[in-house]
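seq as requested:
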Amino acid sequence: MSIGALFGKRRVARKNLDASIDKILRLLEIEYLKSSSAQQLSLYHKKLVMLAASLATQPRLLLLDEPLAGLTYGEIEHFMKILRQLNGEG
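struct tokens:
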């Protein structure tokens, strides 16, 4: 994943964006994907990367119907746990 290719990179200062990306990649437990190309990723990992890219811009609202489509209940629960952590809820 190329950091320069992330959606919304202009909304967040570069220094803050890099720190935000690193934090989100750790929470999603996908730091190892940071230098991977999109062609190398499974559909599940592509969705995780898309979620990380969306979260890096620190949005006030997320619509997650498509990113969560096709995932198992356990994978969705994992996403929700991460979102709660990012929101300071535990």
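The chain has one domain: 3-86.
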